[in-house]
Amino acid sequence: MYDHREIARAMDLFHFEEHSPGMIFWHPMGWRLYRVIEDYMRGVYESYGFLEVRSPIALSRALWEKSGHWEKFREGIFVVGSLDKDKEDLTPDYALKPMSCPAHVGIYKSARRSYREMPIRLMEFGMVHRNEPSGTLSGCMRLRQFVQDDVHIFCQEADIQNEIRNFLNMVSEVYKAFGYEKFSIKISLRPEKRLGSDALWDKAEGALRDACEALKYAYELLPGEGAFYGPKIEVSLEDHLGRSWQCGTIQVDFNLPQIFDLAFVNSEGIFEQPVMLHQAVLGSIERWIGILLESHGALPLWLAPVQVAVAPISDKSAQWALYVASKLRRNGVRVELAKRDATISKKIRELFERKIPLIAVVGEQEAAKGTVNLRRLGVSGQQEIELLDLEQELRNLVSH
Ligand SMILES: [Zn+2]
């Protein structure tokens, strides 16, 4: 079994420091990986009709009191205070957001909304802070600072089922792209203490079930496990080692629209309260990366921070190496030129230790013929291949 921290060290992705427990110092290669994932998700969200937003990471205490988070998550909230000069005490005026919901509510409320623009689907790569006990912190898997693909959909009751289907289609597309073929679905139903009428719960729970059935997904029902504010779906992926990770979720919320007095003008010109859905496909991006590293060991080509290392055997083939590297870069391939002064066997060993999927070795012979000698991570042997053919092969492989 792999430990994602060891793999991250071998690949030089990030480190932790005692000054910031539970927070990641991303190195260039780790940040590149992070951004590949973020860019990919941005594209998926755009293709499903989501609008990206960005909101502040600190919001006033009064807002968190209103949303109920101050009371319920007080222990987990990092407060930001201003120094009271007389008492030399901190007055907790603000909180670092543990989630982005109230901020997206603010964006919704910034304009008068009409049924014509519904559903409004807001998405943020939202940086959140949660003061987890230090004993529970564990690499990327549990952090105090992380980024969620945090989504809030404001819609009409009749839209719920369609939004759930949208979500399940996204989950299936995204998980497959990252190499996970299997996932399981749990639906949490009404608890004893709850908000909203039984008719509303019937409708919402029915919409969750109908969406799963329409897409022919099996699901497990968890009676009584829903939040007081609405039912939810939780999706767990199965990794290559057969382990299960809960990542995706979509939750129906009748509570926040009521607390924050949300409204839209319906087709009869009357104010109506929207339903709010909270959604995440990856969950925490940092934890997603941890799971990726542990389940894959080495990353698939489209995710690798360096996809091809070009390694010249000596100075005599340096020119050709430079040409190969720049040619591949122009095709959108993430390339590193291994210029370090070392024997070729040492270079290859070190590059593979960093889990770079492809190494193109070039010597004088290859330079004369316009080829490279290709080695693949985890595959023994080598293959002489023309630069043009390599370009062609990579064009199909570097994106997901
Ligand atoms: Zn939320």
TrEMBL record:
GO terms for cellular component: cytoplasm. It catalyses: tRNA(Thr) + L-threonine + ATP = L-threonyl-tRNA(Thr) + AMP + diphosphate + H(+). It is an enzyme of class 6 (ligase). InterPro entries: aa-tRNA-synt_IIb, aa-tRNA-synth_II, aa-tRNA-synth_II/BPL/LPL, Anticodon-bd, Anticodon-bd_dom_sf, HisRS/HisZ, Thr-tRNA-ligase_IIa, ThrRS_anticodon. The keyword Ligase applies. The keyword Cytoplasm applies. GO terms for molecular function: ATP binding; metal ion binding; threonine-tRNA ligase activity. Pfam families: HGTP_anticodon, tRNA-synt_2b. Belongs to the class-II aminoacyl-tRNA synthetase family. This is Threonine--tRNA ligase. It comes from Dulcicalothrix desertica PCC 7102. The lineage of its organism: Bacteria, Bacillati, Cyanobacteriota, Cyanophyceae, Nostocales.
